[in-house]
Amino acid sequence: MTVKTDSIKINTSKNFEIIDITSKINELIDINEGIVSIFSRHSTSAIVVNENEAGLLKDVQFTLDNLITDKYSYSHDRIDNNARSHLKSFLLSSSECLPIKNGKLDLGTWQSVFFVELDGPRHNRTVTLTMVGE
């Protein structure tokens, strides 16, 4: 069994942004069969797996913005005025663990892996990959 690690650096240009990182992950996979943990090292971002369809991606932003609106006063805003970003990340996930087959992510037909920026724009966001397998 082999364990390998790598990382992806991401620069974002908007406050909310969904970035498909599937191809970047596939380029860095260094095992033939196994699993990869994909972890965002930031509490105002997320890693999700879903379909890369423009309407769906707009719907995700619409839904999150309507679930966690700016019409409330959040306690965390007294610290750095980004409570909405932190609350949205609580609803999503900071990581995904996915299968690797033949040296690539073994995703479903319509699935992609996304980095979700919730508090941008930011530079040098880090996504850590930990691969376990053969």
Question: What's the topology here?
Answer:
Elements: E1 2-10, E2 17-20, H1 22-28, E3 34-40, E4 45-51, H2 54-67, H3 77-80, H4 83-91, E5 95-101, E6 104-105, E7 111-117, E8 125-133
Antiparallel strand pairs: 1-8, 2-7, 3-5, 3-8, 4-7, 5-6
Can you describe this structure?
The chain is of the alpha+beta class and 134 residues long. It has a single domain (2-70, 80-133), classed as YjbQ-like (Jelly Rolls). Helices cover 25% and strands 39% of the residues. It is built from four helices and eight strands, in the order ββαββαααββββ. The chain has helices at 22-28, 54-67, 77-80, 83-91; strands at 2-10, 17-20, 34-40, 45-51, 95-101, 104-105, 111-117, 125-133. Strands 1-8-3-5-6 form a five-stranded antiparallel beta sheet, covered by helices on one side. A hairpin with a 2-residue loop joins strand 5 (95-101) and strand 6 (104-105). It is elongated and about 50 Å long. It starts with a strand and ends with a strand.
